[in-house]
Amino acid sequence: MPAAILKKRERAPRRGAGPPVKQTAKTLGARLRLLRKSQRITLVELAASSEVDTATISRMETGKMTGTLESHVRLATALGVKLTELYRGIEEARASQGVAFQLPSQRSEVYVHEAGKSSMAMLTTEILKKKLMPVLITIEPGGSTQQEEARVGTEKFLYVLDGTVEARVGETSHVLRRGSSLYLDASLAHSVKNVGGRTAKCLAVVTPPVL
What we know:
Blueprint: E1 6-9, H1 20-38, H2 43-50, H3 54-61, H4 69-79, H5 83-86, H6 90-97, E2 110-113, E3 118-122, E4 133-139, E5 155-162, E6 164-169, E7 172-177, E8 181-185, E9 190-194, E10 200-207
Antiparallel strand pairs: 1-2, 2-3, 3-4, 4-10, 5-8, 5-10, 6-7, 6-9
């Protein structure tokens, strides 16, 4: 999406948890602290009974490190719990990190063609960290997207949600109506034009993501 022909509006700060490893460390640390506190055991006492350094336990509880499997076994034994009890919540936390939920009101990244007749809204956050880039394309009657030509190896899927559009790929044109789809090599020059009488909406999915 060349910046020269697109205007970006309402860019809100991106929010998201850290990398999976960092989140795992936080979840494990919080669980370790909860187990220790529930038994009214101090850091010094746990360090003595588990033979794990006090500083290591402290760093684990604050999510600064995950520790080793050996330290996990020693801590679980010292606390009198199974290792699975220490790991409780980690899988749930990882699963939540693998989901990016977005409400329409949270859609903050919108690219508008300078003619004002077409726009592209990102349908998820942190695009460049994902393998797919879902985009909602809205084109007013008579309008069109800019011509794009991505790097070799990029693929695009286009599905018409409403209206009638003409997708031009290289020297070939395809007229697509509601429910029609097109899969294309995005390294070929391509653009989409609204050839109908009402606003057209298309879902486009690009892989790998390109901006």
